[in-house]
Amino acid sequence: DQQVKQNSPSLSVQEGRISILNCDYTNSMFDYFLWYKKYPAEGPTFLISISSIKDKNEDGRFTVFLNKSAKHLSLHIVPSQPGDSAVYFCAAILNYGGSQGNLIFGKGTKLSVKP
Amino acid sequence: DSGVTQTPKHLITATGQRVTLRCSPRSGDLSVYWYQQSLDQGLQFLIQYYNGEERAKGNILERFSAQQFPDLHSELNLSSLELGDSALYFCASSVGDRHYSPLHFGNGTRLTVT
After folding, report:
1. Three-state DSSP class for B95?
2. Which residue of A has its CA nearest to B47?
3. How far apart are CA B3 and CA B34, in angstroms?
4. Predicted confidence (pLDDT) at residue A103 exceeds the cutoff of 90
5. Which of A12, A70, A74, B13 is 20 to 30 Å apart from A26, CA to CA?
6. Which residue, A46, A52, A114, A49, is CA-closest to A80?
């Protein structure tokens, strides 16, 4: 049973436009969320994170929005650039009453930004 | 370059065999994590070591084991290999022992079991 779902396997966007990558989760005990980006033949690299006590976190062209009531988060990239073409993984951390849980990853969304 | 080194990059072996994957963490990082990425799957957490001690365990099979040595490098041992063990195996490291710290991933070892 997947606890972190990225329902769109792929997304294609024109350069300069906004890219919106979505992620849904099922467990309300997740208290921290992260996005990782992965290029072919490389390992994932950390992009941006958000705590469950916030609803938005911004870092340059990247903004993550969290809607706890809907158990949904999204990553916005504005403006999109061809170098953003990669697989984006959403990940979440469970908090068992203060004990650390493990990172649980979605299956990823492949973003293609066309010049 | 994440600073995390994984060797070998590729490994092809037969069913029933045993292999060892090696990981050198980023300088200064005390935690090492192992993840498995099978075809069409997200990254599955296997195990974490912090400063030589096992800290957390995920869906790691009993045929798999790992350890972290005094110099902080880590090895993942996979035995009695099955076709379904074919996957990308990633090692990651972080300074602390909590997953809230961003992980720095190596480029992975691609294991093919024939």
Report:
1. coil
2. A102
3. 16
4. no
5. A12
6. A114
- Within 8 A of B58 by CB-CB distance, chain A residues are 102
What is the Cα–Cα distance from A64 to A48, expressed in whole angstroms? 7
User: Is the peptide bond between A115 and the residue preceding it cis, with omega within 30 degrees of 0?
Assistant: no
Most confident of A97-111, B63-77, B89-103: B63-77
- pLDDT tens figures, B33-62: 999 999 877 899 999 999 999 988 888 999
How does strand A10-14 pair with strand A109-114? parallel
Of the candidates B12, B16, B11, the residue with the CA atom closest to the CA atom of residue B81: B16
CB-side exposure of A63: number of CA atoms within 13 Å? 12
Most B CBs within 10 Å, among A25, A89, A102, A109, to test the B interface: A102
Q: For A83, phi and psi rounded to 5 degrees?
A: -70, -10
Helix (H, G, I), strand (E, B) or coil at A108: coil
CB pairs A-B closer than 8 Å: 56
